[in-house]
Amino acid sequence: MPYKHFGKNHATSIEEILRDPGFRHVYFDISWDEVAKYIVANPEATKTMVDLMNRYPDRFLFGTDAAAPTDQSKYLKVFYQYEPLWKALDGETSRKVRLRNYERIFDGARGKVRNWESAHVPGASAN
User: Fold this and answer.
1) Closest by alpha carbon to 52, among 4, 11, 98?
2) Which pTM does this prediction carry?
3) Which end of the chain is more exposed for a tag (fewer CB within 10 A), N or C?
4) Contact (CB, 8 A) for 39 and 85
């Protein structure tokens, strides 16, 4: 792996990937609670990620890694854990990370899959 800083300075490694034109198809999902605890561990860590996300607002997304939550509070736990991040990001970046990037990526993928099916699966048609 050419990213020599991996493990020493995670944000530097992420930015190397984001700047590399060969990885323009790579996005970072920040949904995992293990990621959240490091991003909001202290103001310096949060600021580092805020700066990075504000520079690359189209490359991060938030979903949920809650597996079979028994109630809404468990489902939203990581979202609320990110409160310092949401407050520190500029408004447009925050909207992209929380909603718009997911919509763009997954809505775009849906159309690509339907087109592929139309071309390669007998009886399928793009809808």
Assistant:
1) 11
2) 0.80
3) N
4) yes
pLDDT (tens digit per residue) in 44-57: 999 999 999 999 99
Q: 102-123 burial, b for 16+ CB within 10 Å, e for fewer?
A: beeeeeeeeeeeeeeeeeeeee
Cβ atoms 53, 97 nearer than 8 A: yes
Q: What is d(CA 91, CA 116) in angstroms, rounded to the nearest whole number?
A: 36
Please, what sign has the CA dihedral across residues 14, 67, 94, 43? negative
Strands 28-29 and 60-61 turn out to be parallel
Q: 60 has which bridge partners? A: 28
How many angstroms separate the CA atoms of 20 and 38, rounded?
24
DSSP result, 43-92: HHHHHHHHHHHHHSTTSEE------S-SSHHHHTHHHHHTHHHHHHS-HH
